[in-house]
Design goal:
The complex is a heterodimer of chains A (476) and B (1039). Helices cover 47% and strands 1% of the residues of chain A. With 476 residues, chain A is an all-alpha fold. A two-stranded antiparallel sheet of chain A has the order 1-2. In chain A, helix 5 packs antiparallel against helix 6. The longest helix of chain A has 26 residues. Chain A starts with a helix and ends in a 20-residue tail after the last helix. The model of chain A has no long low-confidence stretch (mean pLDDT 92). Chain B has eleven helices and 54 strands. In chain B, the strands form twelve sheets. Chain B has a 22-stranded antiparallel barrel. In chain B, strands 10-15-16-13-14 form a five-stranded mixed β-sheet. A four-stranded antiparallel β-sheet of chain B has the order 3-2-5-6, with helices on one face. In chain B, strand 18 and strand 19 form a beta hairpin. In chain B, helix 7 packs antiparallel against helix 8. Classes of the chains: A mainly alpha (476), B mainly beta (1039). Chain A: This is Starch-binding associating with outer membrane. Chain A: InterPro entries: SusD-like_2 (IPR041662), TPR-like_helical_dom_sf (IPR011990). Chain A: Keywords: Signal.
Amino acid sequence: MRKIYRFALAFTLIGASLSLQSCEDYFDLHENPNLVSNPPLNAMLSTTTHKTGLNSQRIAATTAFYVQYLASPVAGNATDTYQEVDLTGTWDAIYLAMADIQDMKQKGMEEGATDYVGVANIMMAYHLNLIVDHWGDAPYTQAFDNTTLTPRFDSSQDLYAEALRLLDEGIAELNKTDSRIPLRAADDLIHGGNKTQWIRTANAFKARMLNKVSKLPSYDPTAVLTAVDNSYQSNADDAEMEVFEVRNPWAQVAISNTQLVLGGWLSEQFVDHLNGTTYGVFDPRLPRITEPTDPKFSIAPYIGTPNGVGNVGTRSNTDRDEVYISITSPLTGETSPITIASYAEMKFIEAEAAFRAGNRERAYAAYLAGITAHMNKLGVPEGERNAYLSNPAVAVGAANLTLDLIFKEKYVVTYLNAEAWTDARRYDYQYADFDLPANAELTTFIRRVAYPQGESSKNPNTPNTPALSEPLWWDQ
Amino acid sequence: MKNTFTLILLMLFVLGATGAWAQQRQVSGRVTASDTGQGMPGVSVAVKGTTTGVATDSEGSYQIQVPDNSAVLVFRFLGYQTREITVGSQSTINVTLNTDAQQLGEVMVTALGITRETKALGYAAQSVQSEELTQHRQPNVLNALQGKVAGATISSTGGAPGQGTNIQIRGINSIDVGRNNQPLFVIDGVLMDNSTSTVGAGAELRGMSNRLADINPDDIESINVLRGGAATALYGLRGANGVVVITTKRGEQGSLRVNFTSTAGIEEVNKFPDMQSTYSQGTRGVYDATNFFPSWGPRVEQARQLDPTHPERLYNHFEDAYEMGHQFRNSLSFSGGTEAITFLSSISHLTHEGVLPFTDFSNTSARLNAEVKISDKFRTGANFNYVNSGGARYNADRFNESLSYWSPRWDVTDYRKPDGTMNSYGNNNPIYGAATNRLEDDVNRFIGGLSFGYTPTSWLDLTYRIGLDTYNDDRTRTAPGPLGVAGERVYEDNGQGFVGEYTTKFRAINSTFLASANRSFGEDFNATLRLGHELYDRRVKSFGVFGNELTVHDWFFLPNARLLTSTQDLREYRLMGLFAEASVDYRDFLFLTLTGRNDITSTLRKPNNSFFYPSASLSYVFSEHMELPSFINQTKLRLSYAQIGKDAEEYATSSGFASYTGLPTGNTGFTRAALLGNVDLRPEFTDTYEAGLEMSFLNNRLGFDFTYYYSLSKDQIINIAVASTTGYVRAAVNSGEMRNKGVEIVLNAVPVQTQDFTWDSKLIFSANRNKILSIREGLEEITYASQFGYVGSTVTMKLIPGQPYGNIYGSHWQRYYGGAEEDPLFIDKDRPIVIGENGFPVRAPLTSQKILGNSMPDWIGGFTNTFSYKGLSLTSLFDAQWGHEKYNQMGNFFSAFGIADYTEDREDFRVFEGVLADGTPNTKQVWLGQGVGPDGVDYGDGFYRRFHRGVSENFVEDASWIRLRSLTLSYSLPSRLFENIFIRNSSVALTGNNLWLWTRYSGFDPENSSTPSGSNVTGFAGFTYPAVRSYLITLNIGF
């Protein structure tokens, strides 16, 4: 009996002792064991450089239809025909990347890691441009700073000025030599820790931005040329990102297409631009961009799909009777890098700015250098390259160079790059034979994208989107 | 029931005042049950007004001392009508007890296993007994409760073996769609996890089990559903959504009893949508046997002229793709004991193969319940349950989506080529997908509890219980890569092949200490004070590795994968409660109970982590107080108020950096965590008011129980979705108010009761009305869910202040208002639809999203009738959920792909009813088909693809249903057959479940939804696993 008493007492005590544990630490489970509070800078660099590369592709995955690099296999596809599509995923990816960049910058400043601050500034400027070039006004001054859950929208002019300021500040930070923590090469997925290349990228972004306002009175071609001079010196400097969880996202589009998740169909506009139909000269880059159609159908080797029309011809979607993004291309292979900005593109900015400044010689030299650089990047053999460069349709001479020719050639260089749409709008889509997609929602070319549902539903400050044919401020 | 009796007896000893023992003499007799005619063991036989009481033995016999001839014996047994018999001069009193539809006057297991007389309860409570639970032979206990408990909305998420079932008590309580609104489950005092885990690639759509599916229904003695705040007050915040108290069977004193139950059944899909059977594969009426579009081609006759291999009639691919399912369950139990030790052990095995090919579920369960009476003062008990469960789950959503793309020109059941690759004309074959793209779960679970009781004196009782619920949930996700043979078609979802291994380790310990003291004050007052302490400690760790792109295409081995990605998560939670309950009763007709509980939680920070909340309830049994007309039996009024606190989810008070998962192995990175934590989070509180009236008439042949409740939750803790411009995905805030109010009615009747024949009837009805009073300052709405629909017909579920939870918003036809103001939220269906100049109806701009329906039923009801004639019994259960809508995503696809039966009008001309933009009636005739019509006009993709499929209004359908949930015919063989053999009893039963369904809904059974059980999003039917109609035969033998 006494044993039983003790037995019961023991259990009563267990209950009591558990209650005594209530003190302090037993209930102190606030820190989330699945998170860290203070990650090292290099682990933030890998995230932000990776996201920057992916976001450049993510934007292009939509706008490639607007510039008619791609066309949907489905008739009346919403993106293809200028319908309002909800780009919440893209918008969110950009802003969540900016939050990470902001955190890296903050931490870089706290730790005196000027290199990281500089790189953060450059990537932040890049993302701000993605926002300004596609949506216009957007949150920044109150964004990702924990003070409000409904950030105010800043004017796109202000964001543009801020991006330029960030670039200058970034260059200044990178020029400092006393960064407490150097960029870790393995975690810099864009330039492998090469500060010189980052400074060149900052100048490349600056050149883009200064050139972007070509329609505005403030346009200053000399400033553009200065930025170009300080940007890339060769293809080796290109801002590229080639670390993927599985594979290059364009390659994924190509592979999915072969597995019937249709996508990555090259537009008739782009194919005709290259295959001689529009310009009478076959561009040797075409076979390095895509693979020819299935010869058993005995049709033309390069056939594109008209935008808005969908799959043409009587053959089924699955027959290779048109051309697609290809994994054999050095631009869209499984391990190919995503090009964020390139030397070849800079050459065309130089050509345009020099042309607008009246310096035709410089413009023409840059025009040829741009084509050459891009062909080299694509691995076009020297013979084919030179044949193209000497074709009368291309080798027009400095005196006969036109903005049309510059835009025509730059259009190839910016294939699947987000910057292409900026150019198309500045150029008012005046590419040869460039037509509205079939059954377009708009009567004129598209000029902006709609604010995403994800923002407008959660942030009452989100403005209503005007008609998508309304130009953004720099496009007016 | 037997344990309840033990508890009554204990209560009587513990609570009772000592009575005088004088002039005693002995009375004996036997108690038999009116429904079976057999002796009833464990019946409480008590002398009214005293503490004297005994229980009948295993044969139903009893002996009791009575003081004098005026003594009244009270015979009580749960589920039977209590009888009172004046002893008079009799020395043998044989009694037959009638089954009781109305359980007034009985006892009930309430919070923390405390047994109380029902009449003392100041709140609604309803219990469901073992026979009612097992008569439909539902493998999942929650399904067995359907239609039986007022206030509980219980819905299967689909008909897959082991598929989860959702339960909500008195509606949704939180505006945070991510919060758990499922009640707390307690089995024999152990807090039991009933979550539905969606760990594992794509498990959300694979009909995973709610963890209650682990429990063998044959083990259960009773289930009590505690609904309101006063009922659940002692459980504290974890009981804020109601509590389901499960009591398993106990052994009883006497010789060894063996019980064997075996069930076998078959099942089939109970409802298919209507489909067109005229048009073959192709687009714009042009036949193409490899075209993606399954049904926009020409008529079958035309196709047959072009293609001699075209079948004479289209296949019925949906019906062909589903099979007949079957299930077997065998349960064996042993029970018995001595005066000191009683035990019950059981083993059970279920195998269940579903109607969707390659889906199955099995469950093996073993249980041991033991109770030991060490001395008059000490007792101890143990409950151990081991379960192994799991099966092959398939994504029914994907299956039906692929079936929608599949052309009925081709036989879908011919899914595999001789070389093992997918056989298809082009599109993915859904059956091949089910065969190869797999997820299997394997759960090993142990639920155990130990209890100790000590009664040092007659007025004090101490109990302590410690419980453990722990399981490992292992999941394997596989798909083979391409075989690499010529002409191979790769099943899209299988990609390059993959293998994923996921493990969740769950462990929860709960400890409860309870001290009860009872005292009488004078003649009239009796008081009980309880003090208690409860601790709950939970740890859930999960991790997984996903290996993508297999080298050997069908070797599901992680090192065989080219790319590995890993996930890991750990959540720990601790909660402690200190509570007290004081109850006073006055002359056995007025009962007042006050409770208070203070919780300390690990999910809030000091000082907000410790908070107190009270409750009060009053029961006034006026039939005991005043003289009522004789046809009125017991009558009781209940009033209660309760406040319940609620804490946050784990780690809602902290922010940080999470691993960035976008990088390949070899690179690591960090990114801002999705949640913006809030160190200042405060507990949220819900105030509940409840009033009820119970009455029974005509000797308890007729009775009702009416309840009204009103609850208001304020300052809710929500993880609100925030704009990404904040740098976060969600933020933890205190915000929002929500109100629920409703009525619950239980009606009981015994319309016929003769010696041999009884007709028992029970009706339950409940209706809940919800309103969102506020969300968050600055926000007009919170979108919490959406489901895809073609070209602008995507629907969303949003919280808008002033509107109820569950509203479905979407696009709608433009209506003509002629200058009158248009309501921004509601469609005015009386107004004419605007017809465009092209002759087709016009969709309103997509910026206008209106309320198209609400997914929460206006009312739910259940109607049970039992007819017993001697050993034969027929039970039917009608069950209804009424007045709610669901978005029929499959219907949207059926429009887009020309599958729906109504698209048979595609070769017709029509003048759409409506008006032009200027208000004049439309007169333009248009053709509904694709391409160039007979009138020479090119109609492009035709009415359905261009217009109809893009308007959500067309696909949010009335999902009300009423069904014959089950019909059971059972026969107990007369006991005289077994007099000289070892068998004691035997019965056989035939059951049909879901035999009849009435609904206006055009898809599969509208009870189901595409979200997993436990989700608060119930408005989307998606492409669900169809519900089944099952036929079962059950044999029961007792030895």
